[in-house]
Amino acid sequence: MIVVLAAIEIPQKVESRETPRPTSSTSASASASVSAHSPVIHGDSPADVSDTTTPTLIGSTPAPIYKTPEPPPLSSTTTKKNRMLELKLLHNFTTMTAKTLSVSSPVLEKIWRVTVPELAFSSASYLADTLLAVSALHLRSSAPHDRELIRASHSYMASACSEYGACLSKGVTESNAEALFLTAALIAFQSTASRIFTRDDINDRTGGYSLPLSWFHSFQGVKAVVAATWQWLCTSAIVIPIIESQPALNLDLSGHPTFFSDLMVGVEDEVAKFENNPAKQLETRMAYQHAIAVLDWAHKIPYTGAPLVFLATVSRRFIELLEARRPRALAILASYFALLKCLDDVWWLKGVARREIMGIVSLFDPDDEEWWPRLQWPLRIALHDNVIIPPQVWGRDWAAQATNTSQNGGFVSHIELLSDMFSSMPQMNGATPDLEPAHQYIVEQEGMMRDILLPEGLEILPVD
What is the DSSP letter of 424? Predict the structure, then answer.
């Protein structure tokens, strides 16, 4: 406890017989002066302090050097228990959670551990709420049924999404660009990590497997926010290291045979069958081609964190194909989750590969001669017992490939292109063109946090 003492000059003690009797007005003035400059401290004062008084003039009322103040008022929702929980969550984030937000980068760890909390406390309460929500989710990974952590995770995230959406609606500026990006990234992280506690979408009453579409929507939201704020983020000392830590995105779109080429077999027949518009046919074909190219790239360097890039780089059309449960899109998704097997020792991805692949496979007919053979590689990876997968099972010597491949530095140019695409979009309802997609996704995300991440019967309590 820090006690700030006022500078009070204590006069030397004098004999009372030498002290003239002051007037009543002088006495009152002296008393008020001492009282006005008494320091304020919190908590109980020591017993010997309460009896300490200033030397007094004859006839005056003794004025204590220390004055114990009234306890500061607290809101109805702020309790000592809540404050201790927030301290616990903040401590956990800075000492443990921050280390798990980057695969292998000491620079990023310091940014998440020190710089991001400082930014949250200085300018963005919604970012602070997001940090606490993610920290609560991390603690919950060791105590899945802890009701306090469940409530904290959902309550803080609901509060963050609400305020974040309001801030985004008011407009993106240089002052809030970094906080908006970091919050979007943590919302996407929360959406992904929450899947380990939910086997299925609570809104799906069929009893079957539901696709983790919230993963894609939240990462698309990050992409939209980046595009909307890139004019400021491109010089950010916080954001650029995060972006540049990603492996260089070198996609092979030449059409040459690759490991996942079989996933493109028959695509012309599919687009001709389902798409009547030539433009839509081209969009669908390109969505598949791009997604498969990302798979091939990540397959070469799986232990660098490259597979995580898939969620943010696939097109919106590919997500629509997933929502329609097109077999080709599902097979691509199964292969993507197979890539995540390499990251199975990360707490928020533990068991994800096996669970999701088995769920996707359950959507297919085992007698399907067209697609069942293409699911065999993801199945082999899902059932493999070790995180380190030998090249003969993986299908490529990933260790040698990683040594010969540039590991970072390729995402800035990719984002600049994306930003130009958003900037060229026509205005929608008078809104800033690059802001509309970001706002749309964050609104969807706020509802998603309540409808998908919140278990039935669990009340979201207000966060003070």
Answer: T
CA distance 247 to 228: 23
Q: What type of residue sits at position 131? A: L
Q: Is the dihedral of CA 118, 122, 124, 128 positive or negative?
A: positive
Q: How do residues 177-206 score in pLDDT, each as one tens digit?
A: 999 999 999 999 999 999 888 753 344 445
DSSP bridge pairs for 67:
40
b/e sequence 192-226, b meaning 16+ C-beta within 10 Å: bbbbbeeeebeeeeeeebbbbebbbbbbbbbbbbb
Distance CA 349, CA 308 (A): 10
The contacts found for 29-35 with CB under 8 angstroms, 24 or more apart, are: 30/57, 30/60, 30/63, 31/60, 31/61, 31/63, 34/8, 34/63, 35/63, 35/67
Q: Is 409 left (phi over 0), alpha (psi -120 to 50) or beta?
A: left
Q: Which of 389, 294, 299 is nearest to 339 (CA)?
A: 299
Tokens read off for 200 = 């299925």
Taking alpha carbons only, the member of 340, 320, 319, 254 closest to residue 289 is: 254
pLDDT at 67: 53
Q: Which two tokens stand for residue 218?
A: 């939240």
* 386-413 average pLDDT score: 66
**Which is nearest to 160 in space by CA: 120, 197, 196?**
120
Which one, of 244, 217, 218, lies nearest residue 233 by Cα? 244
> Buried b / exposed e across 22-36, counting CB within 10 Å, b at 16+?
eeeeebeebbeebee
Q: Are 295 and 394 in contact (CB under 8 A)?
A: no
Q: What is the pTM of this model?
A: 0.73
Which residues, including other chains, have CB under 8 Å from residue 154's CB and lie 6 or more apart? 133, 449, 453, 454, 458, 460
User: Whole-angstrom Cα distance, residue 170 to residue 80?
Assistant: 34
**pLDDT score, position 91:** 97
Assess contact for 375 and 331: CB atoms under 8 A. Answer: yes
Nearest to 332 by CA among 362, 291, 361: 291
* Residue 371: φ, ψ to 5°: -105, -25
Spatial separation of the C-alpha atoms in residues 151 and 460, rounded to whole Å: 6
Answer yes or no: are the C-beta atoms of 287 and 245 closer than 8 Å.
no
Model confidence at 11: pLDDT above 70: no
Q: How far is it, in rounded angstroms, from Cα 59 to Cα 201?
A: 78
Q: Which helix (H) or strand (E) holds 160?
A: helix 147-170
| Count of helix runs (H) and strand runs (E) in the chain | 21, 0
Exposure string (b/e) for 321-355, b if CB count within 10 Å is 16 or more?
bbeeebbbbbbbbbbbbbbbbbbbebebbeebbbb
Residue 41: the pLDDT is 39
